[in-house]
Amino acid sequence: MPNFQSDALVFFGATGDLAYKQIFPAIQRLIRDEGLNVPIIGVAKSGWSLDQLKARAKDSLEHHGGVDAAAFKKMSELLRYVDGDYADAATFAQVRKELGSAKQPLHYMAIPPSLFAAAAGGLAKSGCADNARLVVEKPFGHDLESARELNRILHQYFPEERIFRIDHYLGKEPVQNIIYTRFANPILEPIWNRTYVRSIQITMAEEFGVQDRGRFYDEAGAIRDVVQNHMLQVLANLTMDPPTGEDHEAMRDAKATLLKAVRPLTAQSVVRGQYNGYRSVPGVAAGSTVETFVAVKLDIDTWRWAGVPIYIRAGKVLPVTATEVVVEFRRPPRETFGEIVPTTSSHMRIRVSPDISIALGVRVKLPGEQMVGNDVELQVQRQAAADEPPYQRLLGDAMRGISELFARQDLVQAQWRVVQPILGNVVPAYDYAPGTWGPEEANQLIGGDGPWINPRVASDKKS
What we know:
Shape: globular
Mean pLDDT: 90
CATH topology of the largest domain: Dihydrodipicolinate Reductase, domain 2
Radius of gyration: 24 Å
Helix content: 25-40%
Largest sheet: 9 strands, mixed
CATH architecture of the largest domain: 2-Layer Sandwich
């Protein structure tokens, strides 16, 4: 299907938190950097006026990136507002009126998934869905069955090629850099397989707790919040085969093939934890068993990765805030110099946040007559300040119909298939103290494939 430029942007949930923190800053950047010049229609049920929405947009920009005078002036000229209930046909009739001559709009659902059906149906009945694209925010379901049901609902009104499931993690520059580094450097491909790789670890650590998200988090937990989506996306970028072909589906095809080969998790391959004090957070149930920490062992049933253990862990109130990947390479069949060398000596470390770095762990000789050495890292590092923000990239791509960085239906269902067997209380949630690396049971899970390699803070990195 040929791409076309959307000629209007309609965003539902215009007065909400996501619009305030992400959408208004992204729109201003699209106007400033890419010349966006189409009607921008905010929709919500707040009893607001257009002037109040413009004030909200300005306040958003003042707190998230700053106001660009020329771009904000243009945004104000383009901005429209429709106040109404998503179950009311009059709301969508007004949207159609505000679209004017626009025939190929982009509709962005920055609203809870429970409202998707009403909003998508309203768009279809009012004629706003004709030749339109639909962007929906995660979560894409609560489990495998609800993900299938959500797709069934959306497909009543929009074909798959016009549905863009947005997850900002896919738009992050360092997440994309994993793919680029792998396939742009020919020295990596010969050793990126079970013959040379001993194990893979992926860690997403957060130093902070649930904070003011208690009610949401208590319905999700770490598995649904970050493992089913973010961490499995990182895994796909890290382990998929090179895409074949030049269209935008080639990359998603390669990811889908990989994710469909990941073996579903079992109770024996997961450890859940909950930090002490979590149950006192407002919105959290008094006897909650929801996990704030999870560690899993994964297997990929392909020739490239058969037998290579893959460990993912994610948690809150851990010692640092950082996301990184460590690929451990196998040691030689014998150590030439008779040393006892740590299994972690030879590795590649890819830091995704907060800074961006790629490091290669190597062993170098110590000065002197003896043939002994120590481990060092050769590291390239940069800060992420200059990167294009994910929402700017993703909204711009959706306006152009470029689907590569969006989740496709089969990808979403493949990810749910992996975690479905461990949803709920299939294993206990062990207590752990804030500021530690989770419950001791996580060390038992990794066992002889360990130890866990903890992300380090800037002050203790090797030179």
